[in-house]
Design goal:
Layout: H1 3-11, H2 36-40, H3 43-58, H4 60-63, E1 71-79, E2 90-96, E3 101-107, E4 109-111, E5 118-120, E6 125-131, E7 142-147, H5 170-184, E8 194-198, E9 207-212, E10 217-222, H6 236-239, E11 241-244, H7 250-269, E12 271-275, H8 277-282
Antiparallel strand pairs: 1-2, 1-7, 2-3, 3-6, 4-5, 8-9, 8-12, 9-10, 10-11
Helix pairs in contact: 1-7
Amino acid sequence: MNTRSLGCWLLAGFLAGCATANQRMGPVTSRGTTDPATELVSVPFLADVIAYVDLWYVGLQAAMRSDPPDAVAVWTRMLPAGKDEGDRSHFAELWLPREKLWVDLKRADYVSTEHGTTHRDFGFKIRGVHPGVEPEGGSDWQTVWIPWTAIPLPKPGGPGYPPVAGAVPDARLREALAGFLSQREPTNDRGSSQEFFVGPTSPVANEIWVFWNDGGEVLHFAADGDLENPKTWAHAVESVRFHPLEPGGEVQAGRQAFLQHVAQVCRDQGRRLTVGPETAGRGR
C-alpha cells in the first residue's frame, strides 16, 4: 500500500478525529515526567510517533527503504488549550514531510461528566493521522531532526514493538474481547474458541487494533487515558468499533485496502489470543 492511496482514504474521514523555524535536535527526556512543550520536541517521543505512523499508516515496506536518510525531520507545534471548564488537556500537531501526513496529538487531563472518571495521559497520544498540504510555517513551528537509527521500526514478518509494560494483560484483553463478541452477536452462543490477533501497542497511542480471524473483522478500540489504567477499560465495550473485511465499490476501495493492511499487521506483528465459549459467556 502506498502513502497516496492510503492518504486519500484517510482524507475521506474514516479515522476522523483520525516552513521551518529554530531547527534543532530535541532533548532526550522521559515521557510523562516533563512538561508538554518539552515532550513535544523529545527525540524518543517523536521517534516512536514515526515508527507507529510508518507501521499502521504507511507500511513497513515503504518506510524501510534501501537508502534510508541519516535523519528525518518532524515539524511540531503546540495548539491552544481546550476551552471547557476544568479541562486541562494539551493539544499539539505534527507535520511529517517524509510521509506527507499530519498527526494530531492530545495529552488528556479532564474528568468525564458522563462517567465521573478522570482521564489523564502521562504524555501526548496520537488522536488522528491524515494527509494534507504542507504548512506554510511560522514562528510557532519547530523542526526536530530524528536520527534514523533512533526510530524503532520492527522488521517485516518479525516481532513487533515490545509491548508497553503492563499495559494490557492477556486476561483483561480476553475479558474485553468476550464483551465485544457479546455486543456484536448477543444471541449467538458460539460453541468453539474464537481466534484474535492483537496488534502491537505503543506508548504514543491509546488505541488497539485487533483482527478477529474467525469473524473476518477488524476491531478498533481507542480511548482517552493510558491503556495501563484499569479505569480506561471500564467502558471498553462502548468504545469498540467493528469494521468488516468485505469487497466494496470504488468509494470503499481505499477503506478496504486500509483494513486489509491493518489485519495483516495484526497477524504479522501482533500476538494471538483465543476466547473460548466459557469466557464469552462471562462477557455478557
